[in-house]
Structures are given as structure tokens and as C-alpha cells.
Design a protein that fits this description.
- The complex is a heterodimer.
- Chain A is of the alpha+beta class.
- Chain A has one domain: START domain (Alpha-D-Glucose-1,6-Bisphosphate, Chain A, domain 4, 2-Layer Sandwich), CATH 3.30.530.20.
- In chain A, strands 1-7-6-5-4-3-2 form a seven-stranded antiparallel beta sheet.
- In chain A, helix 2 crosses helix 4.
- Chain A is globular, with a radius of gyration of 16 Å.
- In chain B, strands 4-5-10-6-7 form a five-stranded antiparallel beta sheet.
- By secondary structure, chain B is α+β, with helices and mostly antiparallel strands.
- Chain B has two domains: about 45 residues, 2-Layer Sandwich (Uridine Diphospho-n-acetylenolpyruvylglucosamine Reductase, domain 2), CATH 3.30.43.10; about 200 residues, Uridine Diphospho-n-acetylenolpyruvylglucosamine Reductase, domain 3 (2-Layer Sandwich).
- The longest helix of chain B has 20 residues.
- Helices cover about 35% and strands about 25% of the residues of chain B.
- Chain B is built from eleven helices and 14 strands.
- The chains are: A alpha+beta, B alpha+beta.
């Protein structure tokens, strides 16, 4: 499945770039995230509970940042294991461009899900992935708006 | 299936108390979605609180211009009820098309409504008929109830008691069902009461929604042709292996036209 989108974030580009690397920010913004730990400069481990309708599964995922061109673009690559529930993996190419005081964040992502979750939830996997991505960016934009506002004040 | 505590509540008050006390409890209605999920180990609740045997949650009644269906009434009972067939025949048609015979004999209106599956039939009926959801805490209008993919206005521990349907002059329900599952790829309930028209759509978006543009056109002329050129924007609709958002947008118009024709028949 492919997803793409564009978000206008009312914060300077460098601040947005730094936040994408900040485990605390990621923990706040990833829906259902219990913890994010930095294992190296470009690698993270995250624990996430995905709860949609009747399904509630715990995932442990490894996330790494590749092709880094600071503070303009990078590729976020991740794979997650939900034990018996299944597994997922995906890549997202993220590009930041400054537009006045704002930053435009563009992403294109490919994701795939396997195991039981994919068999049972085939008709809902795409919609759920989109819902989670929307939720992440909604929280991220809200967080950055607040952060930029307090920084400027 | 993982281990859990099974508790059978004898009353709504007891069920509310049990769910509040439970560590990570789930309400069990007909179990047509929850039990398969548990069997696949895709959820691990600490407690299941069974409300399927609570007598005060069963039954169908008509009072004035309102049809009331209690939450634990099975789809088959709604489908075959003389009261429903007389008051809102389109709702009897809707209930008779849910899933398969086993699902219709076990599944309940309250369970289906609370689960808010994007492709379930009842949400279209609730939105398209402008029903009111009565819970153990308050009454919620149809327009405020379905808030997203599997998301409703229900708070944790809040239980649906009954669904109250205002009886329309005319109504029609039709769905384009997925061949294997029977789920609605797109389903539309159209109703007309006086000069007021409601169009409720399920299966096409993350949750059931109304189409105000079609409602306005149908309020002027209640015929299928009145909405033939009204297209719903595809960018708000679901896209998956069964149907693209563009195809679903096309279906909204086609199925709504047929639902109007069914209402007039």
C-alpha cells in the first residue's frame, strides 16, 4: 500500500528536522506509543499498542533513518513485530522545505503488513494505516505549533 | 484464545459496575466480531462482560411515531418483526441482509452500532433515518454518534440501551455487498418525512455519513433522477483491495438512486 501527503507546519525547518529525531516528540505523536528509545544516532526502538475496533495488538519496532540530507530529507525505514498478530514493515521518504516562517513536510510511504493481521484485517489494513498516519501528523503539527509559539514568545 | 474472566451481567447497572471494575474489560454482545478476534489472539482483554442475556435489553416496540429497538435484539428478530415491517420496512430489509444466517441469529443492533465497523449496515440505517442512541448515561443523536473508523461518541464503560427510530413516510435501503463477506462496499438508507429527506451512507467512508447535497435535491423532487448528477468527493472515501475511493464515490450515487427507487416502490 502506498500513502502520501503534505503538511504545512508553522515552525522553522531546523526545529522540525530536530523534532523528527527527538524520541520524546516521537513518543508524543505516534498513536498508542508506550516508549521510544534511541539505540544509536540514527536508530530507535519503539513499543506501540495498535488499537482499532476489536483488535488490540502490541508491536515492537525498529526504526532507522537512512539517506540523511540534513535538514532537507531522509528516509525512515521501519519494521515491527506484533508476535502472533503479525508483522509490518515500511519506508517513508520525508522532505522538508522552508516557506517563509513555515515548513512544508512532504512524505511518500510504502508499507506492507503480513501474518494474521493481514489475513483477518485485509479489508481494513489500508484504512487503518491511513488513520494512524493522519493521527501522527495531526499530533506532530499541533506539537510543533505549540513549540514554535513558545520559542518565539 | 488467551485466558480471560467471563462474567454474565444480570442488569445494565451490574454490567456498568463490572466493566468499571475490570482491569481491561470488554463488553460482549452477540460476539460476532469480538469472538473471532479473540480466537485469532488479536486482542487480550482481562474480562468479558456478557450482556446478551439481560432481559431489559431485549424487545421491539412502537410508541406514536417512534420505533424502539432494544440493544440486545438480534438482527433476525428485527428482520422478522411484524412491528418493524409495518413501521419501517426498509429497516427490516437492512437487518435481513446483514452477514449470514448465523450472524443474524447471534448479532445484535447494539453490538453492531457500538463496534461501528465502517462497512456495517446499521450505521447507514441509524444515520439515514435520524435515530437516537440511548445509553445508560444519555441520549446521542445519530449525527453525533459515528466519529471515525471504529470510533463512536461512546465513552469507556458507556452502554447502549436502545435505538429509537423516528418513523418516516418513506424509506429505502440498498447495498452493494462484497460477495464473500456480505459487508457493504457501499450501502445507502434514504428516508423522507414530510419535506425532510435524509441520506445515510455506510461502507464508503471511515464511518457512516450524510450527503446534504442529495438531501436538498431529493427534498425538491423525490426521484432517482434528481440525484443522478450529484457526485460525492472521492478524497474522503476509503480505498482498499476491494474498491478504490473513486469506485466507491461512483457507487454512492448509483446505490443512492436505487435506494430512492426502493423507497418509492
Amino acid at each position: 500500500m502506498d500513502m502520501s501527503g503534505e503538511q504545512r507546519i508553522p515552525a522553522p525547518q531546523q526545529m522540525v528536522w530536530d523534532s523528527l529525531y527527538d524520541p520524546e516528540v516521537l513518543k508524543l505523536c505516534i498513536p498508542g506509543c508506550d516508549s521510544v528509545e534511541k539505540t544509536s544516532e540514527t536508530e530507535f526502538t519503539a513499543k506501540v499498542v495498535v488499537a482499532v475496533g476489536p483488535v488490540k495488538a502490541k508491536f515492537t519496532g525498529d526504526v532507522s533513518l537512512l539517506d540523511i540530507d540534513a535538514p532537507n530529507s531522509c528516509t525512515i525505514s521501519g519494521k515491527g513485530n506484533g508476535g502472533i498478530a503479525g508483522f509490518g514493515k515500511g519506508n517513508a521518504k520525508v522532505e522538508l522545505t522552508a516557506d517563509g516562517n513555515d515548513t512544508i513536510l512532504k512524505y511518500t510511504a510504502q508499507a506492507s503488513v503480513g501474518g494474521k493481521l493481514a489475513q483477518i484485517g485485509a479489508r481494513l489494513v489500508d484504512s487503518t494505516a491511513k488513520k494512524l498516519a493522519d493521527e501522527f501528523f495531526k499530533r506532530f503539527v499541533a506539537h510543533m505549533t505549540e513549540k514554535a509559539a513558545s520559542g518565539r514568545a | 484464545m488467551y485466558n480471560f474472566e467471563y462474567r454474565r451481567a444480570q442488569s445494565v447497572a451490574e454490567a456498568a459496575k463490572l466493566i468499571k471494575e475490570a482491569d481491561d474489560g470488554k463488553i460482549l454482545a452477540g460476539g460476532m466480531t469480538l469472538i473471532p478476534t479473540l480466537k485469532q489472539r488479536l486482542a487480550q482483554p482481562s474480562d468479558l462482560i456478557d450482556i446478551g442475556k439481560i432481559a431489559e435489553l431485549k424487545g421491539i416496540s412502537v410508541s406514536g411515531k417512534t420505533l424502539t429497538i432494544k440493544a440486545m435484539t438480534r438482527h433476525f428478530d428485527v428482520h422478522s418483526s411484524p412491528e418493524v415491517k409495518k413501521a419501517i420496512p426498509a429497516l427490516a430489509v437492512l437487518a435481513g441482509g446483514i452477514g449470514d444466517p448465523s450472524v443474524r441469529h447471534r448479532g445484535t443492533i447494539g453490538g453492531s452500532t457500538a463496534n461501528a465497523d465502517p462497512a456495517a449496515d446499521y450505521p447507514a440505517g441509524i444515520v439515514g433515518l435520524g435515530a437516537t442512541i440511548e445509553t445508560n448515561k444519555r441520549k446521542i443523536a445519530a449525527d453525533d454518534f459515528f466519529t471515525g473508523l471504529f470510533e463512536t461518541a461512546l465513552e469507556p464503560g458507556e452502554l447502549i440501551i436502545a435505538v429509537h427510530f423516528p418513523i418516516p413516510d418513506k424509506a429505502g435501503y440498498l447495498k452493494f455487498a462484497h460477495l464473500a463477506s456480505g459487508y457493504a462496499t457501499c450501502g445507502v438508507m434514504v428516508s423522507k418525512t414530510g419535506n425532510q429527506v435524509r441520506v445515510g451512507v455506510t461502507g464508503a467512508g471511515p464511518n457512516a455519513f450524510r450527503v446534504p447535497e442529495m438531501e436538498a435535491a431529493l427534498a425538491k423532487t423525490f426521484t432517482p433522477d434528481a440525484i443522478a448528477n450529484i457526485k460525492y468527493p472521492a478524497d474522503e472515501l476509503l480505498s482498499d483491495m476491494h474498491a478504490s475511493a473513486e469506485y466507491r464515490a461512483h457507487l454512492v450515487t448509483v446505490i443512492a438512486k436505487r435506494a430512492v427507487a426502493a423507497a418509492l416502490a
